[in-house]
Amino acid sequence: MKALFVAAAMLMGFAAPAVAQTTTLKYAFVNPMSSHFGAAATTFKEFVEKESAGKIKVDIFPGGALGGEREIVESLQLGTVDMAMTGTSIMGNFVPEVLLYDVPFLFKDTRQARAVLDGQIGKDVLAKFEDKDLVGLGYGENGFKMLTNNKKPVLKPEDLVGMTIRVQENEIHIAAFKQLGARPTPIAWPELYAALQQGVVDGQDNPISNVLSAKFFQVQKYGTLLRHVFAPTVITMSSATWGKLSDADKAIVQAAVAKAVATQRAAVDEYETSGLAKLKEGGMQIVETVDTAAFVEKLAPANEIFAKRFGQDKFDAIRAMN
């Protein structure tokens, strides 16, 4: 009789329904949750969890909780972070082809920049991520950069001579500001506010979206709408994580990325529309009209070097897009 009970129990155990395995994705970025990065991450999380019926969970780590952007990308390669949204400027240290986007005055407007990123040039660059144990899933954006500083209004290249400007750890940015006569100083994003507050550097360049969300207007007196670089973001996944997903789950993730990108771009559009007034309210003096031609002329020697590196054909193709 005892044997029968044991056998019955075993049969009941084997007949128990299987529990669906849950995958949890660690999603990291350095900007605050209240930023356009946070808006994109929230959209991604909500879509993935709904469409997967809870099979895929997303844990969001904002504000540099898992390190600066370089550390985050290294963690992606190691597989200790599953996915992230970073600026392409730092990603260029891992995937050099992405530095094309950082060439000064390459894009004339947002529409053109988005067309390039979403087109064949952008797809070809994302394909290069595979060689670095990364999967490039899509481009969001920060918008066009402005320049801020605590020294004086910047209207022409000469105004930058001798000024210490924080840059990302990016050879294109460093070369460009050296050409303009400034002293570029690489500083990680999580350390930037304090560096500006303490006068470690005189200024920095970032899109309105980042200047507002990081509250740089509290520690910077002057702002210039230089619009010298369009700053994309990129949503990247660890190759190790991507390889563990089923085809159906990959499709959900890709669809979620598209939704996240749309959310982020809409947020940046809003920053571009209302941001200047908010910066002025915060006490920043804004230079809205600059001698763009003078900056382009000053940067011509550096841009010739950049054209040789990335290919004049790409420059021509981008500039031919209307």
Give an overview of the whole structure.
It holds the Pfam family DctP. Keywords: Signal. It comes from Methylopila henanensis. With 322 residues, the chain is α/β, with parallel strands linked by helices. It has one domain: D-Maltodextrin-Binding Protein, domain 2 (3-Layer(aba) Sandwich), CATH 3.40.190.170. It contains 13 helices and ten strands. The protein has helices spanning 2-15, 36-51, 69-78, 88-91, 110-118, 120-127, 171-179, 189-197, 208-213, 239-244, 247-281, 292-310, 312-320, and strands spanning 23-28, 56-61, 83-87, 134-149, 164-167, 183-186, 203-207, 222-224, 230-238, 285-287. Strands 1, 2, 3, 4, 5, 6, 7, 8, 9 and 10 form a ten-stranded mixed sheet that branches. The N and C termini lie far apart (84 Å).
